[in-house]
Amino acid sequence: MFAFVQQAFAFLRSLFPVNDQEPADYPFAASDIAQLHRIGGGMVAASVDQPTWEGMLLDSYFVRLTSQVSIFGKQVLYRILRDGQDDAARDALDERLRLLSGDPDRLAILTEACKSLRHADTDIATLLFEEDLPAVPKWAGQGWLLGVGLTASVGAVVLSPLAWLGAGFFLYQLIAIQMRFHERLAVWNRAMRSLQMMLRGASLLGAIDHPLLREVARDSALAGKINRGLSRFVVDLVPGMREYRDWFMLANVKHYFKGVGIVGLHRQFLRDCYLRVAGVEADLALARHLLACGPTCRAERSDGAVVIEQAVHPLLERPAALTIALHGRGAFISGQNGVGKSTLLRTIGLNLLAARAFGFCYASRASVPMLPVFASMQSEDSMLGGESLYIAELQRARELLAAAAGPGRIICLIDEIFRGTNHLESVSAAAAVLDELARHGTVIVSSHNLVLASLLEHRLAPLCVAPGADGALALSPGVLVQTNGIALLAQRGFGTDIEAKAARVAGWLGAWLAHPEGAGGVLRGGAVELRRA
Predict the structure, then answer these.
(1) Under 8 Å between Cβ of 432 and 455
(2) Secondary structure letter of residue 412 according to DSSP
(3) Which residues pair with 325 in a beta bridge?
(4) CA 165 to chain centre
C-alpha cells in the first residue's frame, strides 16, 4: 500500500516537475550566453566590439550584473548590453525598474519564483529560434512491436530452434536503434529539462498578481500543459522497469519523438514565452542591482554633450567620484602616473554603455549622447600571434577609423595611443589618427605625450586629472605641469645619481616638448618654422 502511495505521489509530482534543491548556477561558457545575440543577427556596426568589451572590463561587470540569474536572463541582458536599446525601450525599462525597485518585498517574491530557472544547465535559444527539428519517422510510435517480436521469438524457441534467428534479428534492431539515438537523446533530454524549467518559471510567475506579469499570466495555462506533455511518467512497480521499457519497447525513443512533436507544434508560443520569462528575469536582475549598487540616476539623452556628475565605477569598492563636462569637443586628459587615468576612462565608458543599454548611469546626474562606444585600452603585443605592440595598436586604430567612417557619430575612448614605437613617430601617428577620429565623433584620450594637447587643441579640450581635497578625481582645464615620473625613480630605489641624470635630461627636453611653438597649426595645414639652437 505504501509503495502505491509513493507511486501516486510521484505521478502527481511528474505533472508539475520541480527541483527543490538550491540552484547551482551552472557556469555557462561565454558562447552559450551570446547565443541569443548571435541568433538575432550578431555583431552590427553599433554593437560593442570585443576589444571594447574587454577594455571596459565588461565580463566582470556582467558577472556583477547577473548574480543569481539563469541562462535565460543572462542571454537577454547580454544582448541588450552589446547592442543597446532605442529611446522607447529604455523609457519602458525605466518604468518597469521603478515599479520593481519601489517594492522590495514583491521583488523578493518574484525573484523566488524565478529560482527554478537557474536549474537549467543548457542553452535552448538555439533549439527554439534556429535549429531545424528532426523529422518524426512513421515507425516512431510502433517501436514496441520489436519488443513483442523479440518476446514471441524467444517463446517460439520451444517449438523450433530456428526461432533464435528471429530473436537475434529483433534484438539487433533494438540495439541498433538505441545506439543510433543514444547521443541525440542525451542532448535532447538535457534541453527538455531546461525547457521545462522555463515553462515552470512561466507558471509560477503567472500565478503572481503583478502588472508586469499580465502577458506571462496569459501564457501560464498553456505553459503548464506543455510542461506536463514533455514529462515522462513511468511507474516502477518492478525495479529497473524504466530501463527494460527503454531497451525492449523503445519507450525513450518514443518519448523523444513525442517531445519533438510537441516542440514543433508549439514552437512560436515557446519562443514568445522564452522571451517574456527571460525579459522578466532580466528586469528583476537590474532592479536588484540598482538597489544594491548605490546612487544611480536616469541618463538623459543629449545632442552631443557628455555631462556626467559624480560618476563612479560599480566594480570599485571605494570609487573616487568624478565629474566631466564636454560640450562640442572631446578631451585630451593628462595626469601624473598612477592618478587613475585608465580608471577614469573606464568609468566614463561604462557609464556611457549603461546609459545606452539600460538608461541609467552610476552618477548623480547624466546627460549623454546615446552613441556607439569604441575603446582602445593599451593594446599588448602577442608572442604567439607574432604581432608586435605597435602592429597591434595600428590594427586597432584602423578598426576605430573604419567605425568612425560609418554613417553616424561615435565615441572613442583611447588610453596611451601608440606606445609601441619611438616618441617622434608615436606623437606624429597619434596626432594624425586622433585628429581624423575627432572629425567624426567624440574622442576622449589620455596620454603622457603632452605635446599632443597643443597639436589637437582645435579638436580636444585639454584637461588635467588630479585627486581633489575630498579624494574625488577632479578635472581642470589645462595640461599637466608637475609630472612625477622622475620622482618615482627615487621612490622605487633607483638612487640619486640616476634620478639627477634623468632630471637633467627632462629639463632639457621638457619645455619645448610640453609647449612647442606653433604646434596648434600643424594639423590644420599652417606653416611651422623649425628653429635649431
Answers:
(1) no
(2) E
(3) 307
(4) 59
Q: Which long-range contacts (C-beta less than 8 Å, at least 24 apart) are formed by 168-176?
A: 170/146, 173/146, 174/146, 174/147, 174/150, 174/247, 174/248, 174/250
CA distance 380 to 375: 14
Which residue is listed with cell 538623459?
300
Q: What type of residue is 92?
A: A
The position carrying cell 572613442 is: 412
Single-letter amino acid code for the residue at 167: A
Burial class (CB in 10 A: 0-12, 13-18, 19+), 499: middle
List the grid coordinates of 55: 577594455
* pLDDT tens figures, 197-210: 999 999 999 999 88
- Given a contact cutoff of 8 angstroms between Cβ atoms, the answer to whether 124 and 226 are in contact is no
Residue 1 has pLDDT above 50, yes or no: no
Taking each helix axis as running N to C, give the angle between helix 241-249 and helix 251-265, from 0 to 180 degrees, rounded to the nearest 10: 80
Query: Is this prediction's pTM over 0.70?
Result: yes
Consecutive H or E run containing 504 = helix 496-514
Q: How far apart are CA 289 and CA 285, in angstroms?
A: 6
Q: Taking Cα atoms as reference points, which of 25, 217, 203 lies closest to residue 113? A: 203
Beta-sheet pairing, 373-377 with 410-415: parallel
pLDDT tens digits along 32-68:
999 999 998 776 778 899 999 999 999 999 999 999 9
Give the HSE-up count for residue 311: Cα atoms under 13 Å, Cβ half-sphere: 30
The H or E element spanning position 254 is helix 251-265
Mapped to the 3 state alphabet, what secondary structure does 298-323 carry? EEEECCCCEEEEEECCCCCCCCCCEE
* DSSP code string of 74-122: HHHHHHHHHH---HHHHHHHHHHHHHHHT-HHHHHHHHHHTGGGGG--S
Find the helix or strand (DSSP H, E) in which 355 lies.
helix 341-358
